[in-house]
Amino acid sequence: MNRTLTLARHLPALASRKLAVRAAALAVAVAAAGVTTAAGSTMPAVTSSFSFKLVPATGITACLPKASGHATITTGSLNDTMVVTVTGMPANAGFDLFVIQQPAKPFGVSWYQTDIQANSTGTGSATVRGVFDSQTFSVSPGGTTTFAPTHQYHLGVWFNDPSVPFNLGCEPGATSPVITPFNGEQDAGIQVLNTSNFPVAAGPLSHVHR
Question: What pLDDT, on a 0 to 100 scale, did the predictor assign at position 161?
Fold first, then answer.
């Protein structure tokens, strides 16, 4: 058979193979760049994290000299993950974590996040997911109360049982435990940790961006 005719017959197959090779190479390049070609897909967001300390609330070091806390916020494409750890606490005591407007009294707008349970060594940790960054805010356009958009950039941790700090001597001069609304039943104890190591108007959450 004429070599020219034979080559002509194989040209379509060769062209198809070249297209397939080019398509495969393009798919590899796209995958390496972290981009998908599915309809409506987007490039994955670059995650980042921000860590900071929680410090003892006023007067706490007198009864809990080793009380401290640590938090790490990791951003995501839609929301954030926050891990909070407390140490130097009474053994097996319970605590409540809030995102708050101001680190100390009167605290301002406050948002209940989770319980934290300390173990036998006084250490506890909790992980929560939500918006814990420069966009964290609350607003009430009306209803039982009204207030404008208000950012909450601080964290606060409260004793869940008010008798714990009272029995530890954290409330000198008090004849009965101080009751605060900072737990699910609104019968918590006093604040034990906060983020007053940051300015009132520039709490740690204001430093997190996504």
Answer: 98
